[in-house]
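Q: My collaborator sent me two sequences in one message, no labels, and asked for predicted structures for both. Can we handle them in order? The first one she listed is below.
A: Yes, handling them in the order given. First sequence, followed by its structure tokens:
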Amino acid sequence: MAALRRGDPRESPQRLYLPIDAFIGDDADVVFGRTSAYNKQQLIPTPSRSPPALWKGIFHGILTFLLVVANIWNITLALSDIAHFGCSHFYGVSVSEDLPPVCHPIILPYQRWPAFKSLEAQVYRHTQQVSGLSSMLRKLDDVLGVALGADRDLARSPQADIILPLTTSDSSSTSWVFSIYNRFSSSSTSTVYLPTVVLDSPPNTGECWQFAGDRGHIAIRLAHHAVVTALSIALPPFDELWDEKYQSPKSIRAWGHPVLPLQATCLDSRPQRSLSDFKTARLPVSVDSKKPLVLLAKFEYNITAPYSRQMFPVEPNYTCEIPALDFVVIEILGNWGANKTCVYHVGIHGKRP
């Protein structure tokens, strides 16, 4: 080594080996196609997790775990329902308590949850309220469809009344055949309503004046003397009556009792009837039996019409002006094929003379 430092030519040169990394720079990967370990440490930094990335990974992990648990729970519930359904059909039992334990559902049916029962009761109560309001609106629409443009219904006045001696009575109209039918018929109503129920408006389903057969009559005393311009027959909405609507009157004639004697022109132009044709008992002193009844209108009530309250105007007669009346007799000549007739509200529309 001393000779080498002095440069003595006699000494054989010694070869020294140095790693190539000592002579290559940052571009060694371009020249030699590789990177030194030193440069690898300089070029490739050590990856580190930032706090947001860490929380994001934790959140994804928790979400994945929950989804797996939810899928397992859904599959378990499906298998439980399938087992319960199969056991119910196999044993022919629908009550879970009567099935083997293996067939019991994991959770109770939702119909048996207290919260569901409370909600079901609230829904039922609100449904009943809505149904009642809907029925009231239909009745109101029915009444308004007739009342608008018509004279006041005099039969709804508290002073209006029924003249019973001019009204079909049970004793005169109920035959022994009809009595036997009512005794054994399950469809007959247990409540019997008086003829005064025809003055109530709007009518309530089932609350009507009934008589046997299809022919009868009823006399309505007005609260005050009035000129009658129209008559109306009202029933509850048809969708509430079912087959009872066939007990509705069909052919009807209305007769009026004038306060003053008729003019000579009216005697020949309008049909008349005697009070004795409708009398079922002794007439009160307030009823003048000497004056005949005069025909106001004859009409038919239609159970296929859109409205259950139907208006019928008094038939005009230009040669005979009908004077003021004190009561009106409604004569029913037929119904829609039933063995008894059910009359709800009879409206008498008019005004003071």
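Q: And the one she listed second?
A: Here it is, processed independently of the first:
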Amino acid sequence: MTVVVITDEEVFVPSTISKFTTDVEFSIHTAMVITQASNLSKLPLDSSSLDIVVGVSKNRDFPAIPLISELFRVAKPDGKVLICLTELGADLPSERILSSLQGKILKAGFSQPETVQQPLDVYAGVQSLSIKAKKPSWKLGSSYPLKASRGLPVVQFSDDFDQIDEDSLLTEEDRKKPQLPPVGDCEVGITRKACKNCVCGRAEAEQKVDKLGSTMELLQSGSGCGSCGLGDAFRCSTCPYKGQAPFKPGEKVVLSLTADI
């Protein structure tokens, strides 16, 4: 069984974790020890090579997230991790410390965390906390065959099954018939003429068309006042040629209708 103990202290004393390892079967005297581990960016160990990884510190924030990721990397599938926080001040919030440590353990990928709070050392005024967890048995990239389904499940209803009447789901608003637009609407009917209270602009368009019709009649019948061809200065206020260039009697006049329609 391969075991490593990491600590951020300069010196590691095995007896400091003896009370935490009663349910973990290994000999602390045969374990590898790495001191000042918090200063390392990567542990000098192979991936998935250790059965048990133990972390020991007097710092409430130990281990940092990068170091926990390293612990997960070096542990074997089904391997165990044990974090021991020793000689913490008795006034520190133990539940909050354990909750934070448990969150970091789970985020790193470990499962089944179990927290332990040792009895308070009243004389020394310190407390000790620990948490152990397990690395899942699968490896990165593992695959497992999935059993194919044998068809859709069969749903059977008994005679006692209460069915809901579909009509009961309708509200009074749903039962009302939709109101069709009035026949006098501009957009309703075959002819599509402007209604009496037209606000969509169809009435104005029809007036322009009627005006153009009367203009063509005057072109064919000639000017009524005899001054239409002389220009706007000589035309009356209701002249249909307002805005057009002067023309000679009998000359074909082309009106520009693009800007008005």
